[in-house]
Amino acid sequence: MTVVDEKGSGEYRSRVREWLGAHVPPPTAGLPPAEVLRIAKEYQAALFEAGFAGITWPKEVGGQGLGPAEQQVFSEEAADYDLPTYPLTIGMGMCGPTLVDLGTPEQKQRYLPKLLRGDEVWCQLFSEPGAGSDVASLQSRAERTDDGWVLNGQKVWTTNAQWADFGAVLARTDPDQVKHAGITMFIVDMHAPGVTVRPLRDMSGKSPFNEVYFDDVHLPADGAISPVIGEVGRGWQAAVTMLGHERVSIGASRPSRSNSLGFDAVLALARREGATADPANRERLAELYAHERALQLLNARMRQETQAGRPPGARGSVAKLAGALQLRRAIAVVGELAGADVVAWDPDDALSADVAQGINSAPASSIAGGTNEVQHNIIGERILGLPKEPQVDRDIPFRQLKVGTQGGAR
Q1: What is the DSSP letter of 173?
Q2: Above pLDDT 90, what percent of the chain?
Q3: Does the annotation count 246 as an active-site position?
């Protein structure tokens, strides 16, 4: 392992900096989706061959087996670039780490090296039209067959499903259990017969989400490779594991310096507007920088603790909530600095266009991975030890509940 000194310098940093400078392609914004996916896969394959993919993942699954210091160095150096990895973020940040935690040896060998190389893209399928913040109310169902399972149902708000080869899907396998039990997490082939993916357009004008339909989709038990992630009937526990990875991935990742609502972009906007001479504006900018830096340090701490055997657990909700609130704070500062320039701008004003795009996209951060209100509840109950809210349906078999879009469970 390469030694990294206290200042984060050393041979490893030099190697990362040199490789990124030579291999990161130009930004992919505005390119056709197929081209975005092609570039992402090519970049990830090169990253894998260079030894920078899965830096902290175990070597036996294709990772590098290094520590949080090396990951921190890579994240710091990569922040200078707009990496083309968006189609791969769900697999790398959520599905892959969950398979590392819960997958069988056969699942890990089959799926993780190809995920790390960018050969296969993954998505996560939890939310449903009647089960958003209350995911345990999900109605998608999987029934046993002689050679596996058959999946039926609908999922919604599925990021990157249009590119995915595989998905981690939650389905109800025993409606006679209470709603948090009788759920199982499966691996589903997104190209299998019966899988339909339809895009959902948001107010940014883009379609980052999808609704996904499953109509008699076969989930085969392929020899020694089970389609079940974790254990049958313990899908809720698997979901908690994946959501923990998701919240850290969303909230505590170090943002690119090209982030349209990151401090560097906001500072550039302030300078262009001539707003930095005002002491009140400088105070706003200083506060924004302090909060962004605190979030970066929280990220580093969680990575180090995870590598030392202390997974973040409920503390991932702190990072996720802090990230969402940071975007709100940045929007407020931008509004004070630029005013109408973030509502209307000249056609060649790329900076204002990027900031406006960021403002339109930012509200999703308060919903994706669990709403801010859900994060407050998790922090209050699991970290601060406050009493739980009453749950009158907790001990009732799911079949007897009238939840979500159903008049009565099937």
Answers
A1: S
A2: 52
A3: yes
Q: In terms of domains, do 257 and 362 share one?
A: yes
135 and 105 housed in the same domain: no
User: 214 and 154 in contact (C-beta within 8 Å)?
Assistant: yes
- Token reading at 56: 């902290």
pLDDT in tens, 107-117: 999 999 999 99
pLDDT at 248: 61
- Give yes or no for a contact between 128 and 156, defined as CB atoms under 8 angstroms apart: yes
**Same structural domain for residues 225 and 264?**
no
Q: Which domain holds residue 229?
A: 123-233
* Dihedral-angle region of residue 297 (phi above 0 means left; psi in -120 to 50 means alpha; beta otherwise): alpha
CATH code, domain with 227? 2.40.110.10
**Is residue 142 classed as helix, strand or coil in its secondary structure?**
strand
pLDDT of residue 244: 76
Angstrom distances, CA of residue 265 to CA of 73, 269, 285, 328, 386: 22, 6, 11, 15, 39
| Residue 85 CA: distances (Å) to CA of 25, 34, 38, 320 | 11, 13, 10, 20
User: Does 258 reside within a domain?
Assistant: yes
Is 51 within a domain? yes
User: With 0-12 CB in 10 A as exposed, 13-18 as middle and 19+ as buried, what is 336?
Assistant: middle
What residues are paired with 151 via a beta bridge? 142, 217
Domain count, the chain: 3
- Give the model confidence (pLDDT) of 1-16 as tens digits: 334 444 445 899 999 9
> Are residues 85 and 60 located together in one domain of the fold?
yes
C-alpha–C-alpha distance, residues 290 and 302, integer Å: 18
Specify whether the CB–CB gap between 100 and 31 falls below 8 A.
no
Catalytic residue chosen out of the listed positions 246, 292, 336, 381: 246
Point out the domain boundary residue: 100, 118, 136. Answer: 118
In this prediction the pTM is 0.82
